[in-house]
Amino acid sequence: MEKESGLPLRSISEAFCKNFLFFFTDIDDTLTTRGKIPPQSYSALWKLFEEGIKVIPVTGRPAGWCDHIARMWPVEAIIGENGAFYYSYDRRKRAMKRRYLFSKTQAEERNHKLEKIKNRVLQEIPGSMVAEDQDFRIADLAIDYREDVNPLSPQQVEKICRIMEEEGAQYKVSSIHVNCWFGEYNKVECLKVFLKEYTGMELPELQDKVLFIGDSPNDEPMFKELKNTVAVANIKEFLPNLKFHPKYLTDLPTSEGFCETIDTVLQKRTKK
């Protein structure tokens, strides 16, 4: 049976909103707008935290950022570099759990392969650039196609993807970067590992306890695997190229859609 998709967010069920426990969220162009976190987005995270909902950002951003977010934000954990790891900070013990989905041997083997991809992309795609946050990454290569560079064309982005594919790497396109890596992990696999280690249960047992929100093609594995997913309205430019779509769509884009989502689910959660 084909999953429902593209429903208006307001149709999300009250029963689900009253019972879900885990809120997984993308960061860039989901809870941010034009590269900034508005105060409303950060306040919305705190509303979830205070309601007892476990917030877990799921991002392509680097390990260095993730350490900060795990410590400083009102979150239970963070999945970083498109599923290479999750970090979770225990505030009572003042200890960081760092769980990697790759071995040290794999890490050593991949570096020269990523270097080759980097060199090919920079030589073959004029205007492309290694992402400014690359120095803080431990598992992947991020090519900037419209964060700190003039936006590349869809054809140029597609060529970047083909280079990565030719070199045997996995890749995903976000709203700002093309990320590639070597390994069998992705955002969904890391989410499954986190849930298993946090709850002792497998994803199928928790489908009605999990909500995810995203905005771009690199969130497609989530849209495929999870029962309850939302995308902010700016995903519409990518939908024609996605095989798996989010169940719900917000009316508003980026951080406004993020706040729309949290306001909607909390209103339904607290409805008498």
Largest sheet: 6 strands, parallel
CATH superfamily membership of the largest domain: HAD superfamily/HAD-like
DSSP strand (E) fraction? 15-25%
Number of strands: 13
How many helices does DSSP assign? 9
Net shape:
globular
What is the domain tally? 2
CATH architecture of the largest domain: 3-Layer(aba) Sandwich
Key features of this structure:
2 domains; 272 residues; globular; Rossmann fold; Hypothetical Protein Ta0175, Chain: A, domain 2; alpha/beta
In short:
The chain is α/β, with parallel strands linked by helices and 272 residues long.
Characterization of this structure:
The structure is a single chain. This protein has helices spanning 14-19, 39-50, 63-72, 104-124, 154-166, 187-199, 203-206, 220-225, 254-269; strands at residues 7-8, 22-25, 54-57, 78-80, 85-90, 95-100, 129-130, 141-144, 170-173, 177-181, 210-214, 229-231, 248-249. The chain has 272 residues and is an alpha/beta fold. The two termini are 33 Å apart. The strands form 3 sheets. A 6-stranded parallel beta sheet has the order 1-13-12-11-2-3, with helices on one face. It has a 4-stranded antiparallel beta sheet with strand order 7-8-10-9, with helices on one face. Strands 4-5-6 form a 3-stranded antiparallel beta sheet, sandwiched between helices. The model has no long low-confidence stretch (mean pLDDT 96).
Set down the secondary structure blueprint.
Blueprint: E1 7-8, H1 14-19, E2 22-25, H2 39-50, E3 54-57, H3 63-72, E4 78-80, E5 85-90, E6 95-100, H4 104-124, E7 129-130, E8 141-144, H5 154-166, E9 170-173, E10 177-181, H6 187-199, H7 203-206, E11 210-214, H8 220-225, E12 229-231, E13 248-249, H9 254-269
Helix pairs in contact: 2-9
